[in-house]
Amino acid sequence: MTSRAERTVLVTGANSGIGRATVLEAARRGFHAVGSVRSGEKAADVKAAAAEAGVAVDTVILDVTDEDGCAEVIGRLRPWGLVNNAGYGTVGAVEEVDDDEARRLLETMVVAPARLCRLALPHMREAGGGRIVNMSSILGRTAPPLTGWYAAAKHALEALSDALRVEVASAGVRVVLVEPGGFRTGIWDEVDRDTARRADSPYGRAYRRSALGLRLAGPVMGDPRMVAMVVGHALTTPRPLGRYLVGVDAVTMSLAQRLTPAVVRDRVSRLGLGL
Length: 275
Hints:
single chain, seven-stranded parallel beta sheet, 7 strands
């Protein structure tokens, strides 16, 4: 059996937030931790964070939507562990998201993770096992207004993960979904930009109320290190769960989704957002 130091764990989207916290956590737990970023500047930021944390982290430059780049990186690293974290936040009513924007979102957050899994699995089979952790969201279980396409991507990732988990279990590969609620990451800056861009739409009032809610929730959002510790556990425990909800808000929303009639949930959402 190989030691952790001999096992490479690739974390995509490691430049900030949950991705950066996760690649540092993987290094703390003794793995050969590699974070993918999209520029040399971001690679330097990750290296600086690793030095400050007192751990060793390698980086690779990778755009996860680049098929050839994904094949080259996976072929070179032959990862034992893969954490599909790369992605971005978006806010938009279904009516206002055009085809190009939808395709870009699905390519980054559904097709790319599936591609990386497909490329990594032969190496995991050859090694006799491995771990795949797909970073979903509580929005993989529910779909609030103005998040339809983002939630659609996370729902799709969860469906693929559920199927994959069973398909590769006999090869010793464990597939895990992590479903965080709200945590302090750069994703909210992207949401703010989307909200400002759509301010003149027929849904303007709903966007403004949504943005206000995010600003009010900001101070009580959790530390990304909490999510990273869950990923670390999923990488190291002999028998990981299929899904991990992370955050009080995620647990609350999951319960509400299961226990509250749809007509009630819809009414509350409409009242809250002015729809």
